Give the backbone structure.
Amino acid sequence: MKKTVSVTFEPGGRIVQGQSGEMLIDLARSQGVHINASCGGSGVCGKCRIIIEKGGVEGGKSEKISAEDFEKGVRLACSSVMIDDVTVRVPTDSSLHKGGLSLQVPVRHRAMEHHFDIDSLRKEGLFFPPVEKVALELPPASATDNMADAGRLVQGLKNQYDEHRLIIGLPALRKLRDALREKNFNTTVTLARPVHNNGKTHVVNVQSGNWVNRNYGLAVDIGTTTVWGQLIDLHTGEILAYTGDYNGQISYGEDVISRIIYAEKPKGAELMQELVAATINKVITTLLAESDVDRDEIDSITVAANTTMTHLFLSLEPHNIRRAPYVPVSTFFPPIRATDLNLDLPKHAIALLYPAISSYVGGDIVAGVMGSGMYRTDKLTLYIDIGTNAEIVIGSKEWLVCAACSAGPAFEGGGIGYGMRAANGAISDFSMHPQTFEPMNTTIGRKAPIGICGSGLLIIIATLFEHGVIDQRGKFNQDLDTPRIRKGKSGGEFVLAWKDECGINSDITISEVDIENFIRAKAAIYAGVKTLVEEVGLHITDLERIILAGAFGSYIDLDSAMTVGLLPEFDAGKIMYVGNGSLMGARMSELSNHIRQDVVNAVQKMTSFELSEVAKFKDEYVASLFLPHTDTGLFPGVKNRKEALLNS
Amino acid sequence: MKKTVSVTFEPGGRIVQGQSGEMLIDLARSQGVHINASCGGSGVCGKCRIIIEKGGVEGGKSEKISAEDFEKGVRLACSSVMIDDVTVRVPTDSSLHKGGLSLQVPVRHRAMEHHFDIDSLRKEGLFFPPVEKVALELPPASATDNMADAGRLVQGLKNQYDEHRLIIGLPALRKLRDALREKNFNTTVTLARPVHNNGKTHVVNVQSGNWVNRNYGLAVDIGTTTVWGQLIDLHTGEILAYTGDYNGQISYGEDVISRIIYAEKPKGAELMQELVAATINKVITTLLAESDVDRDEIDSITVAANTTMTHLFLSLEPHNIRRAPYVPVSTFFPPIRATDLNLDLPKHAIALLYPAISSYVGGDIVAGVMGSGMYRTDKLTLYIDIGTNAEIVIGSKEWLVCAACSAGPAFEGGGIGYGMRAANGAISDFSMHPQTFEPMNTTIGRKAPIGICGSGLLIIIATLFEHGVIDQRGKFNQDLDTPRIRKGKSGGEFVLAWKDECGINSDITISEVDIENFIRAKAAIYAGVKTLVEEVGLHITDLERIILAGAFGSYIDLDSAMTVGLLPEFDAGKIMYVGNGSLMGARMSELSNHIRQDVVNAVQKMTSFELSEVAKFKDEYVASLFLPHTDTGLFPGVKNRKEALLNS
């Protein structure tokens, strides 16, 4: 059981509340208490020494702390876990020289997480899985009533459930005789609803006896990097298992373009299809192993993916996705038998693919728009999924516009000297002392730092800018009194961690070239959002809500994002994070046939813009190549944050 | 070029018209001129000697005719082919003893053949193949118009052909990119219409360039014995090739019951499916070899078959078809991908199966009702397909009733001492001298007789009865002065051909047991027809038209059928023969989507009776166990025919 603990930071006597089990250093950072820490929390640098004056913590030991000091209460903040109320003294060599604890680094905000709400789906009458099981007790055949088995079934569904317009598929017909007779004409029928109201309901499966409570579906998100899957109880709406695995295509290229290039080779497309199908099959096997569901009990699968991934999964030729004028084969996909896609699922299982909008606004984004509920909100909303490409959707239930911006790989660590993916040892969080400019790094997995991931890069650049270490153009202030600013091979650079604190054999730095690349990436996205809003005659300040999707969105520090001008200045309380919006949308479609029907309407409402074809986009882009923007009036919060630091 | 020739028969000087190329003996028989001929036309018996007095014939030579006789004009009638006007003397030892040529055997009637009329289909606006090809010229994609290929196609179909509610199948999507670009966005689209008006039209194929004139389909009839197929030009409606092959299942049993029994064994059903699919594949290969059509150009296949054959083809469990209360798995079948049925056809080809009515009134009969136009006639019609089971349909466009009668295998030569299938050497036609009782046999293929096929059996029994050789109960008149009537192992029998005239090492006879079996078979059918008519409150004399279907129907001698009481007494001019009604119906469905739609209505209109459950059927059956019937008033024509013979 977690409990609330009070932590008193000395000197200064500031009292803040935390949770037992939390790392002390994380509480300090979140509350703006600066403790020097270069090594990312791995204990290598030993700079984050603190003294426990009252109460106790768990951990915090290190070979860098003598037995004598340990006895006195000295610990490393980066490995101390809070267990109860405690008073902590941050020594001068740790809170550093001037100012001490009265100095505070800015408090950081993350986006609120939007949880998929099965109850509200129920309340709104939208919980209506497209695949449903019903139990039938039929009169056995007799000499005076020797209707065919199929006719008897249809009659029973009509009489007992008022079902009409039925069609019985071949796999169900093949099982029908035994399924009826094994339990004396008591049977369970699996019905798959049409997406369109005037379509037919398909009888996809029959089982002897009553199995209405065992009805399962899959939601799958095919990411370029990772394939995620959920096993869903279609009866209760619950997620029974959730897992992911690397997309097997990844060894043939990290991004969609290199996958397309590979698919254009002889047999390349077949291989791409087989690899992603094999990955999905692995995911399915894991999901089943984590549950008591049999493979044969899966009746349905909904897949959401970007346009390239969808094309490769369906073996549609992706060539023109990467060539102007960027024409996909299709943006709508028919229902497809799962086994036709090499999925290891029952013969009757049907795969539904989320429709796409264009070559670069795919089914993953459409799924997010559906899953987040954006398609039925009154509020003018910005939905944004930031990656190598940022997909942007703006609108409400009345209208939707969308576009993709090519941001480049900076947010995934690409084109950055020490950039890396979000993996162990990546600096993912950062703050600095406003006077000494000494950093407070946190790494993923608390390993000695080996590089910088996207969310780390964002917060580092924002922090450097807020502290005046870099200027509006991203150039270092060479006048500052710190050995961390120096000239490197690529011009000015800042040392985030010294070699002896690192997990690699060099200092880890951020250079002006890195910052330039980052600024180009964030400028493309901001310019995209601004252009799109203005194309529909509105202003960026008219936005009422922001929904962040994708892996990057979950780690993003909102204040930093606004400081650098990646996101428009906004009340953090109105920014929501939906995580894997694509998977959320896929799950929604598994649980609500209404939503499957609405998808078609939503997609038809979505107007796609090619930003490269919109004249003003280029101007907006150039205007955005500053921190936060040429027009600082758009970012009043930055000025406030900077002034607060100067006055601290 | 055939031409009409005049043949004068002497003595008597009777002049009749025939066709050049026709066999002289056939003309004689059809015109009631008796020429003795036991050996079936094989030339073995040499009894059919004639003398050509004027003009000439081709053939007619035999080692039984000396050079001297040949010089005098002596020929064998059974191998003489008419080429021009000719005068023929039938010598006393051939026209036999008393009476000579003034004696006439009855003139025989065959049913008029009903030809499938593509022109009338066109005139009535019913020529509307469910699979159609249309040519599209689309604007190429550009930076300002970069709609997906599929969207462009749908837009083009809407603009150029007013097509709506389209769905593009996966096989077509997979080809789409290249199909559009190979000929600069000129493409041919194959559209498959929905059976129901509110369904969707499927884009099943796309080709680059214009191929609208090359659109092909298959009509297939799966008979228990033979599988027939037609390759159809869906653009013109013409049959491009027509072939048949033995159903590969035949080595596992000749009738449906033994096939079902085999299918119940482990792996039996799979084998039955594979065997019939392999047969269809052979038929398809032959059809393609006889045309310039590529396999990939076949878009559609319609299959009609009896209920058991349909079940085995679809791998539906047929077990309950042979067990009371005779419940098939289904009588309606969904559209099925041809490759799912192991057919060697393109991936996009869809197989449509004719719906059935019950376990013993199958899709073959429904197809016949559709193909013959019975479902839209005003006239009260009897449709009958005679085999081991006789399927009977009675009605008009307003209503339809149907039933199956188990006639037993007599019509296929089963249960008859010298019975055989309609193959070379089977006695298939017959007449006799009214005073000497000498027979005039014709065999299939003009081979020395080896047995009796169904149509031969019918005409033999009718002739024996008409000539008073057997009585109403089928017993021989032992008082007649002929060595051909004798006591055999199974009671009385009649020698049709003596051993030395035969292709087997014994006399060929027909026994009272054979006749009894035949009477039971014909009684079941007649009683079935009468019961069915009366069940709907009508009388058998209300029938306005008879349609005969099936192989047996094509050879049936109508007068004989009425003489024995197999068919009701009827004006032969109102009896039509449709041949393979099942195949005709399959072809109609390939050519007319209206008819596909009408099938559903027709089937829903068709009320099926289980004759065994209708109390009066048994009484009718017993009353029919006479030649022609207990109630001779039902068959006035028989009396007339018998009297004419007595007075001749």
